[in-house]
Design goal:
The chain is an alpha+beta fold and 342 residues long. The protein folds into two domains: 6-192, Fructose-1,6-Bisphosphatase, subunit A, domain 1 (Fructose-1,6-Bisphosphatase, Chain A, domain 1), CATH 3.30.540; 203-339, 3-Layer(aba) Sandwich (D-Maltodextrin-Binding Protein, domain 2), CATH 3.40.190. The chain is 32% helix and 21% strand. It has helices spanning 6-15, 23-43, 68-81, 144-147, 216-226, 244-254, 273-286, 317-334, 336-341; strands at residues 57-58, 64-65, 86-91, 98-99, 107-115, 126-134, 156-162, 166-171, 176-182, 187-192, 203-205, 237-238, 257-260, 290-292, 312-315. It has an eight-stranded mixed sheet, with helices on both faces. Helix 1 packs antiparallel against helix 2. The longest helix is centred in the N-terminal third of the chain and has 21 residues, at 23-43. The chain is globular. The N and C termini lie far apart (69 Å). It binds 2,5-anhydro-1,6-di-O-phosphono-D-mannitol and magnesium ion (MG). Residues 92, 112, 115, 244, 276 line the site of magnesium ion.
């Protein structure tokens, strides 16, 4: 049986774009290479003395052993930074943008190099999330116009899950496609072509331990999803891994609603616009789903800083719409409406 590799697939997609120079294919190739290196490292975490690579240790080559999240950040930064395809890299692990002065390319690369890294030592799936924009400003300088673009201006986004198998999922705005790493061949093969998220799911996914810190509309929404009402498919099941890539990947395949709302501890929400919400929003919309802050479409947002956080409701179209409707209705009930009618 003939199998399509990730490289072949990316090349075919770029071919469909007249005027393409191959620079994008080259960037995607480098992301794939970095992903393979991290996959190998994640799969061998805990082997030997370097249990989960505590920073400060020296390995047999005499090099300092990095923690896996730091290792992932360095691996991506080095490989992508030297690829000649990007002029700036932003990362969840770095305060400031890294500006590439030496042989810069026309793309901006943004990443959460190892999302869910607090789960490494318990063998839970973790992953890399990335997003690509084109440099917008004229001239050689990288400006805020380039680094703080509207989510809808992404030209590609994807994630790599390091789990029971390593899966690479990406979109360039022509559907969502998933590839599974064949460890024997070291090659990603197309395993999930044209992914479509179910229109409605039967699970919700959130850190319910934050209940006491939620506002009334959020409590009402979750209470509603848990209510026993079989005619409307409720109660929903609860599934929460605590590793966004893994929770998102399940939601994409099976449908449902993932939420990380604002709470009193994180008044703006916990997840970041550039590294988590925007790339996953691009993917979910390409798969037929939705992503919202609860009241606004994520891809319509232009961030004001590279580490901006926001509430996230993402998943099946009907489930996200239900969340938006319920949240708006309770705000009304608890706000001016209650005041008027009470
Ligand atoms: P990280 O990027 O520092 O790993 O944090 C983001 C992670 C997500 O993977 C996950 O969805 C969320 O934080 C879990 O948070 P909590 O432990 O508050 O439920
Ligand atoms: Mg993260």
């Amino acid at each position: 049986m003939e199998r399509t590799t990730l490289v072949q697939h990316i090349r075919q997609q770029e071919k469909a774009n007249p005027g393409a120079t191959g620079e994008f294919t080259s960037l995607m190739n480098e992301i794939m290479v970095a992903g393979k290196i991290i996959s190998l490292e994640v799969n061998s975490a805990g082997i030997g003395e370097d249990v989960f690579g505590l920073t400060g240790k020296i390995n047999v080559q005499g090099e300092e052993v990095k923690k896996l999240d730091e290792f992932s950040d360095l691996t991506f930064t080095k490989i992508i930074g030297q690829s000649g395809t990007v002029c700036a890299i932003t990362s969840e692990e770095r305060e400031e943008a890294l500006i590439i002065e030496d042989n810069p390319g026309k793309y901006i690369f943004m990443m959460d190099p190892l999302d869910g890294s607090s789960n490494i030592d318990v063998n839970v799936s973790i992953g890399t999330i990335f997003s690509i924009y084109r440099k917008k400003s004229l001239g050689n300088k990288v400006t805020d116009e380039d680094l703080l673009q509207k989510g809808g201006e992404q030209i590609a986004a994807g994630y790599i899950v390091y789990g029971s198998s390593t899966i690479f999922v990406y979109t360039t705005g022509q559907g969502v496609h998933g590839f599974t790493l064949d460890p024997a061949l070291g090659e990603f093969f197309l395993s999930h072509p044209d992914l479509v998220i179910p229109e409605q799911g039967s699970t919700y996914s959130t850190n319910e331990g934050n209940w006491g810190n939620w506002d009334e509309p959020q409590k009402d929404l979750v209470a509603y999803l848990k209510e026993d009402a079989p005619a409307t498919g409720r109660p929903y099941k609860l599934r929460y891994i605590g590793s966004l890539v893994a929770d998102f990947h399940r939601t994409l395949l099976k449908g449902g609603l993932f939420m990380y709302p604002k709470d009193t501890k994180s008044p703006n929400g916990k997840l970041r616009f550039s590294f988590e919400a925007a790339p996953l929003a691009f993917i979910v919309e390409q798969a037929g789903g939705k992503a919202s802050t609860g009241s606004q479409r994520i891809l319509d947002i232009t961030p004001s800083g590279i580490h901006d956080r926001l509430p996230l409701f993402i998943g099946s179209k009907k489930d996200v719409e239900l969340a938006e409707e319920r949240l708006a209705a309770t705000v009304k009930k608890g706000g001016w409406f209650k005041w008027l009618s009470g």
